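hey so i finally got around to running both of the ones u sent me last week. sorry it took forever, my laptop kept dying halfway thru and i had to restart like 3 times lol. anyway pasting them below in the order u listed, first the sequence line then the structure token line for each. didnt double check formatting much so if smth looks off just lmk and ill redo it

first one:
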Amino acid sequence: MADDPELTLTAVDQVPFILAVCEGPELRVLLLSGATRAVLPGRDYLGRPIREVISDLVGQQIVDAYYEVYRTGKPFDGSEWRVHLDMPDGSVHEMFADFTITPWTVDGERRGVIGIGTDVTEAVYKRQAAAADTERLRRRYEESREVITALQRELLPAGLPVLPGAQVAASYLLAETDTAAGGDWFDAIVQPDGRLALIVGDVVGHGVAASGVMGQLRAVLQDRLYSGASVTEAVGAVDRFAARVPAAHAATVALVVLDTVSGAAEYCTAGHPAPLVVDGAGGTRYLPLTGGAPLGTGGSFSVGQARLQDGDLLLLYSDGILERPGRDHTSSAAELAHFAADSAAGRALRDPEATPAERVCTQTVELLVRATGHGDDITLLAVQRVTPVQNLVLDLPAEPAVLRGARHELGAWLTKAGATDQDVFVLQHALGELMTNAVEHAAAAEGSTVTVTVSLTASGAVEAVVTDRGKWREPSRQENRGRGLALTSQLVESLTVTHDTDGTVARIRQPLTRPARLLDMRDPPAPPSAPAAVEFRIVEQEGDDEAHVRVEGPLDAQTASLARRELLRRSRGGTVPLTVELSTVTHLSSAGVSALHHVAAQHTAQGAPLSLVASPGSPAQTILALVALHP
């Protein structure tokens, strides 16, 4: 029985861990344990190369590790590696694994490779969930990194511009072994002529001194570039400053000024690593160094020329990504190019909601440092040339029923343009108020329409115009009227309204920005989930308690009257206490605010308490705070 190979295979097949046995230079699969087949359901594996069996892991380092072990004869270990696996139903399964890949030798000759692993996904998820719910996590951030992170955020840009022909992203990862803010910095500045200036710099050292110098160097470059200075002028100015400040001596900087329309770029590498280009076909190339010396060292600064085609992605980075433990500069540069290309193309970790620039700035860092760690801060700044988003033009009949659909169209356009959820919220509310006013003005004239035009300017601001052909009516003095324009003016940067006998034109302007990512490799981000559409309704809370209700969906011009009647019915005209949960309201217009004011006034007159409850950051809490109707 002991010599029965079939019996041996049966026993091996029942081991409770991942096991893969591969043979020959092609690493053709001889055996997958039952646990392995459960992780990789429905795959044809026997006799096939491991790279084909787990082709969905190409770009996630696992496949490369198998062949590297066979080539070198050295084992490879991984702990809690995050991987994404394609399932037969088309879904993607996220898994964390501990594993060891070892050479398989027979009589001293290399026969193949054996991979052994354990699925630790449940343990990782439990640890992450526990960490999120415990005081230990808060103490860790409060006592060690919270202050550092806050300082770093204050010193770095509050946001990156959202532009019609370019997608910009950035990330910053603090050194593993450091407890002080670093000297890396980045910036993305739209110049007066519409060109985009991109900067990554590095001050020698860490701590308060390095951060202070970094802030000064960044301010000098900002001032020159916002004034329209050329690459030569801007680098010359910051070099002169560094020569006068000892702590800035030998700081390095890479500056690229890109014409997002033509793709023409000018750049300078003052002692800094060369920018990387990932082209639209997935190829990579490093731009030639311009030969500039570090700042303040008495060197000169040449300017290089380059051109980005549509779809090309340019990556600037600090040398912390190259100077990882156990890697020389050449191999690190090759790895950076490889994983940047995989991340840009979506071949690495799955994140279809992120832009290629965002994937490069987050996934490239995760993939590179998880195998080696990192001893220095790492900064990445990426821009990709894209097809400019076309203007949104809506010709709407002067009917309130069209407003909700128009808000949805606006939200979809803003998301396509690259707006954050917060900017979508602001502009949907602001333009919703203007469209409501325009529909009211135009409704008196039969067949009248309202026109909405929305564009994204070269400087990264949304400009929108709402035009109607109705008759202007001065805002009435009714207590609950006239809030729409006031609310709009509080939400956006600028609002102007002009009117004459032919109609009214309302214009708004709101800059768009996207945040950079301050990374923490200890807790990878959870994938985003798309919010489901919610219809308007009023729901009684547990126990069918009419005096404690939850409002769901849009509270707008269409639903405000119904909401007012229903809330007063449940509170017996304001004579009994009423609690209204508003956290699940998806859109709160001025008409909805007026309805809530009316209900509040009734309760005040009757002497019965009214409690409006809205969670922090929810649409209702944000709007109610603006109009001084506090929940």
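and the second one:
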Amino acid sequence: MYRIGFDVGGTFTDFTALEPGSGKAIHFKTSSTPHDPSQAIETGLRHYVEELGIAPSDFEFVGHGTTVATNMVIERRGVPTGLITTRGARDVLEIGRQTRPHLYDYSVTKPEPLVERYMALEVTERLNADGEVLHALDEAGVRAAAETLRGAGAQAVAICFLHAYRDGRHERRAAEIVREVLPDAYVSISSEVLPEFREFERFSTTVINAYVGPRMDRYLERFLQRLADIGIESAPRTIHSNGGLMSVDTVRSFPVRTCLSGPAAGVVGAAKVAGVSGFPNIVTYDVGGTSTDVSLVEAGRPAFTTSRLVADYPVRCPMLDINVIGAGGGSIAALDDAGALKVGPRSAGAYPGPVAYGQGGTEPTTTDANLVLGRLDSDTLLSGRMQVDKAAAREVIERRIAKPLGLGVEEAALGILRIAVANMGRAIRAVSTEKGHRLQDFALFAYGGAGPLHAAAVAVETGMKTVIVPAQPGTMCARGILLSDVGFDFVRTGVSTASAASWPAIGAAFGQMRQEGNDWLANEGVAEDRRSMQYVVDARYDGQNHEVQVVLDGPDAAYDAFLDGFRAAHRQEYGYDIENRAVEIVNLRLSVKGASAAAPDAEYTAQDGDAVIGSRQVYFDGGWYETAIYERARLPVGPYVEGPAIIQEMSSTTIVEPGQRLRVDGSGTMLIEV
């Protein structure tokens, strides 16, 4: 029997199959198919079934990571979506927060709302902030609005009423009416998607959920049909943005929760693998073909956030705190209008890809630069299964970058990499030093197809002293899916002043949420002995507008313990606390999990044969170096490899720069001392 996980990325789709008991892992990568991501999934699964001889019935677990929903928002490929809201709130999405992050840059514009204004309709209804009915729902008005949206061609409808987070009765009834008028439409209501206060974020998240829902549903249908065609009967689970797994039915209801699906899996897997090697504090560094994703893990626990921007649209739901920038193997290098060299955020992606791939790419990328400098070679990518044209890479860098800047080709290529590394370093500081952490206390955990290729340089850039490279780093996100737990998050808003007298009501509310969590876990098929729950309070000082999160020991945690935890969290986030200021409780959060049945890692044993398989000239800062090439699977545990060195494997290439050294630990993980 096998457990298989796969992650659909912008350039490659990665697979990892684990055999429970032995811990044997089989990794595979294939090019993504952006027009239909499920096609690449079928290609990979058929590789295991038809070429490796694994019977479809032997897949006892199927885990799935996807960026389909995110890409739909980025590319605005959702469906025509309508909004029904409380009278007077029609323009919440248009007004937004009125923030100006680039005050003096007139070229920066905010994105157009995903709901066009003529499809944002008002109806009479109103609850107050305590959930009491001020104006009853005008059901005839809802029906008329639904008929208007039907005439406008709406395929999805978001229903967002003021104060529905306190009581969703009006939204639920409105949804019933809309489904009567538009039986084929996808309907999302804010009291289910995000029962939290703050109208703009709640409206935005609910609209995105509706906007991507129909196409996500059709993608899932194709995905399930392809599994059936292969003969795989195991019900798949999809990882969502908080690092937990959920069923297809849950994904259909809440597709917005998959916006960080694949990257979240990588962080979960990285935290567990690094812990085995004795590094509880890491910065995860995932570089693919299109983007770089970084996140902070402290004491073995990934950092979480409750909000982020997806293509500049606010999405608010519990998720891992992952910073994503447009820097990857396919990032395009070009000169701007002032003649300065820029790298990213534009990417050549899977198609046409870097110039060296010979698929029609015409602009130089970081992969082309690595080929010119000898860091990659024709036998490197996918163990030689992907042939590359180094001469084409050299020609385009010379023509587009080197000659206009008056540089040699190698200098231009090294400049491309230096800029890419600087961009990646800024992303790492955004999740660490800018939040009060010392990077010297953390190791850099590098994965993704291009992570280990640049990690040594990024460590130097950021002052980190250790780089960790797991086995098969290019498939880490797929492996992380197999190490993830089933999970979901519940939230309840109830703004109140914290006091010893009011604290028992918090415990009672958590008790009700715990029942909701147990019901959800039971529906997901999680046995009681595999369930766990985490209780979190969003709190702030009186007069503040934003909260910090306080993790409680349990629903019956003492009030004084909550206050101590709040002040400690506030000091960590802001550098101070205000001992005599009243504290407000804003949201109660419950994170429920069902423990994974993932197999432990197999004990590492090096393959027979000489680890050194050749050498070649590689360009580093200072010129060309004769550099030994190693086969990773043959590296023994213990002895150091002195840099410069290149370690090759199917899914990635690791660079050890001059003056650095590398060793392999007992779990097969490589550690680079910078």
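quick thing i noticed on the 2nd:
Residues 68 and 353 are 19 Å apart (CA to CA).
anyway thats it, ttyl
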